[in-house]
TrEMBL record:
<dbReference type="Pfam" id="PF13409">
    <property type="entry name" value="GST_N_2"/>
</dbReference>
<comment type="similarity">
    <text>Belongs to the GST superfamily.</text>
</comment>
<dbReference type="InterPro" id="IPR010987">
    <property type="entry name" value="Glutathione-S-Trfase_C-like"/>
</dbReference>
<dbReference type="InterPro" id="IPR040079">
    <property type="entry name" value="Glutathione_S-Trfase"/>
</dbReference>
<dbReference type="InterPro" id="IPR004045">
    <property type="entry name" value="Glutathione_S-Trfase_N"/>
</dbReference>
<protein>
    <recommendedName>
        <fullName>Glutathione S-transferase</fullName>
    </recommendedName>
</protein>
<dbReference type="InterPro" id="IPR036249">
    <property type="entry name" value="Thioredoxin-like_sf"/>
</dbReference>
<dbReference type="InterPro" id="IPR036282">
    <property type="entry name" value="Glutathione-S-Trfase_C_sf"/>
</dbReference>
<feature type="domain" description="GST C-terminal">
    <location>
        <begin position="218"/>
        <end position="361"/>
    </location>
</feature>
<dbReference type="InterPro" id="IPR004046">
    <property type="entry name" value="GST_C"/>
</dbReference>
<feature type="domain" description="GST N-terminal">
    <location>
        <begin position="125"/>
        <end position="212"/>
    </location>
</feature>
<dbReference type="Pfam" id="PF00043">
    <property type="entry name" value="GST_C"/>
</dbReference>
Length: 365
């Protein structure tokens, strides 16, 4: 009898199976057990013994020693519907030398994340490692790591760079993040680096937050989390960042900056107004404490990804206390999150290079 394993891909329509005959069965045809091997040029599909990486690479290496052309036959153009599905007892169909043996492999994306110029503290790091500076973007990931530590005991290493020296534009950093921005998360267990703060927050909760303390198991609540996380990433931070630039750092006379200053200030206040409407429950009748979740919401990475920027609304000097009086629910939200112990740690001296010089890597001023 032919068997279709769970690894067979029904959407491929037709499949080819290779069957080998182990020598111990040559004289015992009535006891013959046929082991199907799914062969596909698609590397995402494999047979029960191990993953196929290319055509012709699907036979177990020990089986290959006993398999010859005379002992092997190919059944081609076999419709999946003609092959009965075997949903259990896959192990008994395997050759005896691989039965009850775990072949799980931890995937790795790259074998070499580092260059000769990568600072030794980063190159020799183990597990999770954060490269940061305590800016609003850096604080997003710093806060989440501190929150995960408080709940799960999560461990990681930290390196602090000075973005004022353009350390993040050097080749060793660009290999980790071609965009040349902090922060960067490195997962040395998988030889994998993560750029962009929203992606980093999502990566960390997927990796560490098994009980969904800072995200949601419910798909609708998770969707709401993503909506507000992306809203700030795409609509909030860029505008407020430009307010900071044109009011505080732009090297041009004020009269040449008036249009940019007015535009980005107004857009930032508009975005604050969107969040104020959401938190106030103006259109739902349900005031909220946090951005995502049923009822009044639950503290999550939607808040963590937004708060470090908004709490610095007065950094540029462009937005006044009078401007902020229009957003009472937003101001309460800022104060509510600021009281969390992990938030205080994530924005405090643990990430201050002057207080933690041993964490400093790269060029200093």
């Amino acid at each position: 009898m032919w068997y279709k394993t769970p690894h067979t891909a029904p959407h491929l329509g037709r499949s080819s199976f290779q069957v080998y005959l182990h020598p111990i069965y040559r004289k015992q045809p009535t006891q013959l057990q046929l082991q199907p091997i799914f062969r596909s040029s698609n590397a995402n599909f494999g047979h029960p013994i191990r993953q196929c990486r290319s055509i012709g690479n699907c036979i177990h290496p020990k089986a290959a020693r006993f398999t010859s052309a005379a002992e092997t036959r190919i059944v081609s153009n076999t419709r999946n519907s003609e092959i009965p599905t075997l949903s259990s007892s896959i192990n008994r169909l395997r050759p005896f030398w691989v039965q009850s043996r775990s072949l799980t492999v931890v995937p790795k994306m790259s074998s070499n994340l580092y260059t000769d110029e990568t600072p030794e503290a980063i190159k020799s790091s183990k597990g999770l490692h954060l490269i940061t500076q305590s800016t609003p973007n850096g604080q997003k990931v710093q806060i989440l790591l501190e929150e995960l530590k408080a709940v799960y005991g999560t461990k990681w290493g930290t390196s602090i760079i000075n973005i004022g020296t353009n350390e993040q534009k050097k080749d060793w950093f660009l290999k980790l993040n071609p965009n040349g921005r902090i922060p960067v998360i490195i997962d040395n267990d998988k030889s994998f680096s993560v750029m962009e703060t929203s992606a980093e927050l999502l990566y960390l909760v997927d990796r560490e937050d098994k009980d969904h303390h800072f995200d949601f198991a419910d798909p609708l609540e998770k969707s709401q989390l993503l909506q507000w996380l992306y809203f700030w990433h795409g609509s909030g931070a860029p505008y407020q960042g430009q307010v900071n630039h044109f009011f505080k750092f732009a090297p041009a006379p004020p009269d040449q900056l008036q249009y940019a200053q007015t535009r980005f200030k107004n857009e930032t206040l508009r975005v604050f107004g969107v969040i104020e409407i959401h938190l106030s429950g103006k259109y739902t009748g349900q005031p909220r404490e946090y951005l995502a979740g049923n009822g009044s919401g639950k503290y999550s990475i939607a808040d963590i990804g937004t708060w470090p920027w908004i709490k610095g609304w007065n950094f540029s000097g462009a937005i006044s206390e009078e401007d902020m009086e229009a957003f009472p629910h937003l101001l309460k939200w800022i104060d509510r999150i600021a009281e969390r112990p992990a938030v205080k740690l994530g924005t405090g001296d643990n990430y201050n290079a002057a207080k933690r010089p041993e964490l400093y890597v790269g060029e200093k001023r």
